[in-house]
Known about the structure:
With 255 residues, the protein is an alpha+beta fold. It has 3 domains: 2-116; 129-172, no CATH class; 188-250, no CATH class. 50% of the residues lie in helices and 20% in strands. The protein has helices at 2-24, 29-61, 64-70, 74-116, 133-136, 142-149, 228-237, and strands spanning 129-130, 153-159, 166-172, 188-198, 204-213, 219-225, 239-242, 247-250. The strands form 2 sheets. It has a 5-stranded antiparallel sheet with strand order 6-5-4-8-7, covered by helices on one side. Strands 1-2-3 form a 3-stranded antiparallel sheet, with helices on one face. A hairpin with a 5-residue loop joins strand 4 and strand 5 (204-213). Helix 1 packs antiparallel against helix 2 and helix 2 runs antiparallel to helix 4 (74-116). The longest helix has 43 residues, at 74-116. 16% of the residues are buried.
Amino acid sequence: MFHGATLLLGLALVLYIVYLISVAGKPSLHDKYDFKAAYEIKRMKGVFFCIALFAFSVINLYGKETWDETGTSKLAFFVRGFIAFAGATLVYYISVLILDYYYPHRLNKSLNAIRTKPRINPKTGNKMRLLREDEEDVHLNEGMRAEEDIFSVDYDVWFDEQSGDTLIERYEGNKVALKCNNCGFDTMRVFKEEVLEKNAAGVPTQIVKHYQCAYCKNFRATAFNVSHKDANDLKNNLVRFKGNESEKLYGQRTR
Length: 255
């Protein structure tokens, strides 16, 4: 059991070191940003899971020699196992709470430092300057500006004032938008929801979501089955009015 506990602690350390090496091995700051944003919290949860198993092993070892000498019963063995399990669960639960609610703030500061760190022009070696919002639009095409207008994507434009070269980096925005199959930009958003079917109680069971691209104005409609919870959301949060053929619901659900 002691050797197993040591291995678990070593595994946690190895996972953490491997993650740091993975981040350091990314070829660009933008790649490091994307990797940390996507995987850092997940990898840290894996590390703390190993630490929780280590805690289980250590707690289970506490007083083992005394218990063995006195010939403890099976009941005492299970009690010790239960205490070890409770301790490990507490360690992992607290670590998950920290990673889910406190750590994102620290992670965002780290990501912001990476995002704003001056870029180097790979062609000339010159330091590039991050353009302000009012300066960058001239370097973005209409589709990119449309993505920024609905906050689905955010673009950073770095400018080499000596050579005139630009570097455009793409970051995920704060609001959900789908990729438009027509123009290829992430500018397709829901603008209307229409009820297709209802149950006997008059609650929607199937709806159609109508999407429109903010850039090329392309339309798309997709049918969805509505769960009981979503049906209540639709009933409570959307504005209704009668149409010619069916009841139409406008707006977006609020959760």
